[in-house]
Amino acid sequence: MARGKIQMRRIENATGRQVTFSKRRTGLLKKAYELSVLCDAEVAVIIFSQKGRLYKFSSNSEIRKTIDQYHRYTNDANMYHAKMERYILHLKQETMDMERKIELLEVPLRKLSGQCVESCSIDEIQQIGNQLERSLSSIRERKAQLFNDQIQQLQAKERFLKEENAKLLAKRYANPWQSTAHPRAAAIHSQSSRSTDVETGLFIGLPES
């Protein structure tokens, strides 16, 4: 016969409640003992009956040691959680402060770009205009400096090319025969070379027929 499901509520009958307490208390202490032996765990169980009677089990020789260890663990855990909560609150506060600073910095930038100027007074508009003029002046100065640097670089490159060209011309006129000789002089030099190549010889005896 299947066992019915027990409803989790207070047993109204005092005798039945006492019997159930006795059985389940014994079973709980037995399970605690088995857990400590099988798993080599430190286990402590404290039970107070309805009448205030104490029942306990401890795998340690003194249950007080287990209780002290529990207190140390909970204190450390509570301190850690409290520290983390303070740290999180600090980060949230820093984030909010940073957002406010960013907002304060973005307002002038938006005004300089022509946004959010509807609520500006005449003095603020004048200040924005002066700041824009100073910015444009700085930009023009930087632009002129960059152009001047570029012109100086081009001039230096031009001087370098002129010097190289002058060196090449000097080498060319220093050795004219190695570059371009006069065509007529070259032809005369060639004919003279061929005329000196005529074979001459002395033969003794009758000429061959």
TrEMBL record:
Keyword Transcription listed: yes
InterPro entries, per database record: MADS-box/MEF2_TF, MEF2-like_N, TF_Kbox, TF_MADSbox, TF_MADSbox_sf
Pfam family, one: K-box
Coiled-coil intervals: 144-171
Record localization: Nucleus
Record's keyword terms, sorted: Coiled coil, DNA-binding, Nucleus, Transcription, Transcription regulation
Domain (K-box) ranges: 88-178
Top-level lineage group: Eukaryota
UniProt KW Coiled coil keyword: yes
Molecular function in Gene Ontology: DNA-binding transcription factor activity, RNA polymerase II-specific; protein dimerization activity; RNA polymerase II cis-regulatory region sequence-specific DNA binding
GO biological process, one term: positive regulation of transcription by RNA polymerase II
Protein name as it appears in the record: Uncharacterized protein
Lineage: Eukaryota, Viridiplantae, Streptophyta, Embryophyta, Tracheophyta
